[in-house]
Structure formats: C-alpha cells, structure tokens
Amino acid sequence: MRGSQVLVTAGCLLVHCGGSMDGRVAVSSAEAQEPALPPTPTPPRAPEPCLVALAATGAQFEPARLTAAPAAMPGCGMREGVIVSRGPTGLEYRPPIEISCVFALTLPAIEETVRQVAATNLAEPIRLVRTMGSYGCRTIRSTRSPGRLSQHALGNAIDVGILEGASVHASVVRDFRADTSEGRFLRDLAAALRQAGSLERVLDPEYDAAHRNHFHLEGHPLAEAN
Ligand SMILES: [Zn+2]
After folding, report:
1. 169 falls in which pLDDT band (50, 70, 90)?
2. Which domain holds residue 128?
3. How far is the CA of 36 from the centre of ligand 1 (A)?
4. Separation of CA 157 and ligand 1 centre (Å)
5. What are phi and psi of 218, to 5 degrees?
6. Are 176 and 205 in contact (CB under 8 A)?
7. 197 in a domain, yes or no?
8. What is the count of structural domains for the chain?
9. How many angstroms does the Cα of residue 49 sit away from the middle of ligand 1?
10. Model confidence pLDDT, tens digit, residues 121-137
11. Cα–Cα dist 99/54, whole Å
C-alpha cells in the first residue's frame, strides 16, 4: 500500500499532475474528499541512444533483464544489455545472444565479414549462427589466464559453434581442420574477423583445448562496464 502511494506521488511529480512546478501540490479541501484516483502511469522514457542506433541497423532485439551479479563475483553486468535474435543482415542467432548494446553495434561488421567469406568458400549464404554462450557472470575458462573475469561477464563476447546455410553445416569442432569447403570457410572466417578490426580478439581451436569447439568473438574493451 505504501509502495503504491509512493508511486502515485512520483508519477504526479513527473507528469506534473497539478499545483506549482516546484513540487508543492495545491489541493482544495473539496478535492481532498474525493476518492483516490488510480495510479498515474509512468511516462515513457526516451530510448537510450545505443538502442536507437541498434534498431537502425535492422537487428531484432529486446532489452535484457539481468539478475544482480553474485556477491562473490563483483564486476559482472551490462549497462545496456540486449537479447539479439536476428542480426542486421538477417542472420538468425540460436539461441539468441545476450550482449551489451555497444558490442551489438559491431554485428553489422561481423555479419558482413561472414557474408564475404561465405561467398568465397561456399555455394550458399550463411543464414543461422548456432551460439554456445554470450552473457555469463564467470571467469575465463582458458588455462592461460585462470581466475580473471571473462569478457562474457560484461556482455562483450559471444561463442559461435556452428554456421549454417540451407544445406551447409560448418561446425567448428568437426570442420575447422578439415580439407573441405566448410573447413576453409571456418579458417578463412577466423582470419578475416581478426583482420577486419571490429573485434578485440578472435579465439579458435588453435588457441587452446577450451576453444576446440567454438570461436570466441570478443569486442573492444567497453568504456563503462556497469
Ligand atoms: Zn567465449
């Protein structure tokens, strides 16, 4: 009861229900007798600039709702998290990727690289990216830097296991070292993503055993991680 009263008061202050602009509301004695009005809806907030920019890319996404980081793992979290189900060029992410909005703005560049490398190596375009992880409050899995907070804990990385077209099925764990069009596609893709400069780091099965079955694609360091 007390909570709803606070909300009504806050709503009135935000939309200026009546009274003076300095927040003091003048209520006549007659009005004071009237039954309470239903709570005023909170006025819509202006969307964040990053979300506007991401929507302009054509990506399909929704805001992410995160639970608080566990006390034992401080530093996790995203300032503006989004769940992207389809990228700017129509690539489907399955399951959808939960990443920071700033990192999501690199998807146009990543997907353009995927398109180019597929056009060179495959008979058809990639339509589906099977992902193996995105946001996760955890430390680095690689044995090279144990204990350090992973970029996944900031929503600044995605793990990609398989890329598919209508009949193409390029699996990192199965095809990365194979002398097939899928193998060449995957090796060329890792190299091209490194060269393109839109990512801070691209780890593949050559890096270590923890990455034998996926590409780890990591964005440049985020200016603000909370
Ligand atoms: Zn990863």
Report:
1. very high
2. 49-218
3. 53
4. 6
5. -125, 135
6. yes
7. yes
8. 2
9. 27
10. 999 999 999 999 999 98
11. 12
